[in-house]
Design goal:
Spore Coat Polysaccharide Biosynthesis Protein SpsA, Chain A; globular; alpha/beta; 13 strands
């Protein structure tokens, strides 16, 4: 299994806090968010850690050079969404991969649960009675499997938020990579979310299991208030 971390974005909605740096470089507990992720994913002994860069790519790659990661660049980062960034990592997907956004802090035990889960398609979900507009919402069936994932889903239909962390196992990874390429190269959907690939896999009959966040800290840093909440809730248990 590989690890793919999408770190191409700038983070314009939190620019007042980042002061020109990528938002994945914001520090929690004295360590950059992406450094927390890199330390966490090494516990899975991945074959390769791939970081997709874009905004200030040379700076990001230089600062993380000692991590041992492989860097691929999205030269169109300011005109694409996460699917466009994932496209540049498609060649690294076929052994199976863990996927994550570089601006999300999550407790290491969450990733540990994802690694241990035997499913081929596994999403980390925070259960919520009523997700809000900004969130990537999920709908579950009676067996607690994801049947729908969409940001535009009516809030009242959602049963939780996908936090942007998932596993695509080796049995379905070649199909996932094929879909990424098709959506971008043929259908021109580089400005879409990666979740269109997930939904297509579900529609093709792939069971989508979940790992629940529960009471653990997981937060995507989009706005200054997100960063303030992360700093307030972080307890330092994963400092190394």
């Amino acid at each position: 299994m590989n690890v793919i971390i999408l770190a191409a974005g700038r983070g314009t909605r939190i620019a007042e806090v980042t002061d020109g740096s990528p938002k994945s470089f914001l520090r929690i507990g004295g360590k950059r968010i992406i450094e927390h992720q890199l330390d966490t994913v090494r516990s899975a002994n991945p074959n390769e850690i791939v970081v997709v860069t874009g905004y200030r790519a040379p700076y990001v790659e230089r600062e993380l050079a000692s991590s041992g990661a492989t860097f691929v660049r999205n030269p169109f980062y300011d005109r694409t969404n996460v699917l466009g960034s994932a496209y540049f990592a498609a060649d690294h997907m076929e052994p199976g991969f863990y996927y994550m956004h570089a601006d999300t802090y999550f407790e290491p035990t969450i990733f540990g649960d994802l690694v241990r889960h035997p499913g081929e398609l596994v999403l980390v979900v925070e259960r919520k009675d009523r997700p809000v507009d900004e969130e990537m919402k999920v709908r579950l069936d009676e067996d607690h499997k994801v049947v729908e994932i969409s940001k535009t889903m009516p809030n009242e239909r959602g049963q939780g938020e996908f936090i942007g962390l998932l596993k695509v196992g080796p049995g379905i990874a070649p199909r996932a990579a094929e879909l990424v390429r098709r959506f971008v190269e043929v259908e021109g959907k580089a400005d879409e979310y990666f979740e269109v690939v997930v939904q297509q896999l579900i529609d093709e009959g792939v069971p989508a299991d979940i790992v629940e966040v529960g009471t653990r800290l997981s937060i995507e840093i989009d706005f200054p208030e997100d960063y303030e909440e992360a700093l307030r809730r972080y307890d330092g248990t994963d400092l190394r």
